[in-house]
Amino acid sequence: MRSLESLWHTLFVAAVLLLLVGLPFATHFDLSGFSSSPDAVSSATIELPDQPSGEFLVIINKKLHSDTLSDWEKFFSGEELPVIFDDIRCASAKGDAGGIQLAERFRAQLPENQMTFRTEDPTLFISKVEEGYIDIAVISKEMADVLGFNPERLKRDMTVVSLSGKG
Fold this sequence. Notes:
Elements: H1 2-28, H2 32-36, H3 40-43, E1 53-61, H4 69-77, E2 88-93, H5 97-109, E3 115-120, H6 122-131, E4 136-140, H7 141-147, E5 158-166
Parallel strand pairs: 2-3, 2-4
Antiparallel strand pairs: 1-4, 1-5
């Protein structure tokens, strides 16, 4: 008699667990996707933002990227490179549509979370760039002219890559 009660108790607990855990799981998740999904690596496609037209400056802080400086210069110049094992923080001036678009294009070309991007007040941005307080800066030549930015006033720790966007 005791074994029959244990059997009923076990079946009752199993049924309750199936209702509490199994039913929500079965209705919430699409299990067919696990077996028929394409390979994530072979099917991944990234749509890059359009290349903006005009002239641009990419300013790189040499102190922060002494080991990978040549790789970053090649990357920002448009050359294909293997993975660069160095995270970067990029900034651009608010209102600089071309600079922001180009920075977003660079970020899309890099592995996820390798490049963080922010926009800053234009005057503060130029001041930080000139004093070497920025990791990577992207600015259009038009915005640089409007803000009176002169690359010759940069600290020695900064290097400039000039680009021409063909749009």
